[in-house]
Amino acid sequence: MNARSHYAAVLIVLALAVGRSDAAEAPGEELTTEQINFFESKIRPVLVRECYSCHSNKTGSIRGGLRLDTRDVMREGGDSGPAIVPGSLDESLIYGAITHQDFVMPPKRKLPQKVIDDFRTWIEMGAPDPRVTTIAEIKSSISEEDIQQAKKTFWAYQPPQASTPPNVEDTTWPKTEIDQFILAKLEQANIEPTEDTEVTKLLRRLHFDLVGLPPSPPQIAQFTKAWNKDSEQAVADVVDELLASGQYGERWGRHWLDVVRFAESTGNAVNMTFPHAWRYRDYVIDSFNADKPFDRFIQEQLAGDLLPAETDETWAKNLIATGFLAVGTKNINEQARAQFTADVVDEQIDATTRVFLGTSVACARCHDHKFDAIPQSDYYAMAGIFGSTDTYFGNPSSNLIRRPQARQASSLILLPVEDPNPYDKRYTPEELDDLRGEVANKQRQLFELRQQGANNAQLRRLINVIQMSQLVDKLAVVDEKGNPLSYCMGVQDTQAPRDARILVRGEIDEPGQTVERGFPQVLSNSQTSLPSDASGRLQMAQWIASDKNPLTARVMVNRIWQHLLGHGLVRSPDNFGVTGQPPTHPELLDHLATEFVNSGWSVKHMVRAIMTSRVYRLASTYDEHSHNLDPENTLLWRANPRRLDAEAIRDTMLAISGELDLQRPRGSEVAKAGYVRVQNGVLGNVRDAVQRIGGRELIATAMNARNAQTRGNRNMSRAERRALGREAVINKVTSLLDMEEAVYRSVYLPIVRDATPRSLHVFDFADSNAVVGARDASNTADQALYLMNNPFVIQQSEALAERIEKMSSRPNRQIEIAFLFAYGRRPTAGEQVAANSFIDDFSKSKTRQETLAALCQSLFASAEFRYVY
Length: 869
What we know:
By secondary structure, this protein is mostly helical.
């Protein structure tokens, strides 16, 4: 038996154990007068009287995710499955409920036998039900003429036009064609660009922009020497060297993870982990390092499962790439499956259109777009594509046993290669036999109890279903030899793709006319005919990645420009619509977009082109005349001072202290914790989280801390001691999740929604609940307090001091080395005097090493350390 067959067999066992199956899609039906009369006289009155108070939309109560007030939602069912399967008593859960076999409904009493017999007759005759929801005809306020007019007049909907760089008066200043576009605008405004920045500041800028790490003292010396010989070649060489390093992908991959709202948990009220999300993270990093053509990058993320693959390894990477559509937020506590599905589709539409097209099509979910020429029908044309797609994000066998906290569960995609989660359990042959024996015993008990006449409700009380599910979960995720199977998050086409209906005000119980699957009309020159037997995701991915699409190349080059110059040419990077900002240099934006496509969609090519321009190396020097004419620096007469992001601040401390480990860690702390719930920033049950993450020694450490606090306080009650012990464990686990002991790069820290490590959160880390094209960059008291008091900062200050002491014992030289590490330059004469004075004063009460560590920490806390000028 292969891995797939083994997995399927285990799921069948579990399905039999809990008495569930999936409902077939209800076909259209013509009802006779006799069938209608039977339903109206025998069935509807009972549903209204006995069921609607807890299971109808009108009463506002949908217990168990089950509604019984229309035919379609009744057949779709709730958390436990379909309420009605026409013709099948065994599969119709409502019959099991009223006979008190599966559930006890109505609660506390049984319906008269005559009513039960009526329901039996009704189901066996095919469950005829005239309660078909009335279909409204929704008319759009956006006409075809409006759409065509928008295509003709709005800049973003017109194809980029290649243009010749403009002539400039000062022909000696520009180094590249980019510079000509910039200087032409400055000359028109009577503004002169500022001088070039200092050599050390330029090198620091190059390093942080490309790899997120500072240059080392030897690299500073080497670049300075090369700069004095040939400045242009020196810059080009450093750019090429850094682009070729593995740290480039980690830096630029993190930029992309911001945009695609990457996280390792569902978020919302019931926040369950994504133990396999790390695969998508690593895929993104590897793609940037390999300079994967951006059009291919798009197609893999939107439709990798549908792309041809010559090898299983390529197919596996393509499947992992579709994690883009699976890592978004999910309200898994949503009771109604239809609502949950609609919300997932909405989140996917919003991410896809904003990330790749800089357009929020999701604004048209409930009504026509208020500003852009996107009618509501265009939203549901895309909803049909995503609605014909299954999303896999949860736990391999959780689609059959729903945990109490997760009403809407999902499985995962089995990879075609052997590449298991590094923390997954491997079973010896003996352990595997024991597991199988336990399952067999449960099955034997189940069979014997059925033989004795026990119904499903009694079986659930006699056999612990959760315990059974845990046993089956263990078997489901290993092959027949006990080796863990390899899974990923992602998407697959449904077996029966279908078009979506427009929903009045976006309400799932108010459908309108059916809309053919397709793309927003204002962005496409001709409507592509999508296949009837597929979702249309592949065609959508190809359309988005086409050089004919007016937005895709523009949106990406604008993101690249923003990361290198501080602001995009369009300052609303996720909104190229009417309410967004127009480009400050439209001709330059089109020039870059055209060059991007002509380069083979090479991100590295665009990065190199911008970083070797003259405008990139400008100083950030203030000039009153220029500021008065252009206070927002939209014309780029100087460099924009930029605060380092959270990852660069943390990684820099590790790098200059000598503790940074550049080796990529396998997996993630979330993968180590497994599929658990996040509560108050802690993974799952506190003790369970401790066991999963740190083992018994972590508990012992926390308890020792508790004992140290309580020792000598004999008046403390047992309850107070227990509470303090629990607090110690929580603090220890929280500290671990903050990753204060981790020494690898910040891109590999666990990104759990609503539980971001403090080292990232305090410095404006991207909100993983949303598409973030541009992070905030605040300067707050919390940041100052973190740099003054956080154990991680203190630890790195001490490590840097120790490193400096090993390099030199002379105080002046130690100060010089500290400045080189922290700022990428030597101290000025005034700074040297101030540092010596600080050391003299501080060392009166502290050791020499403590004094040097305090100096290092003061450098970490300074503005120059946190900013690139």
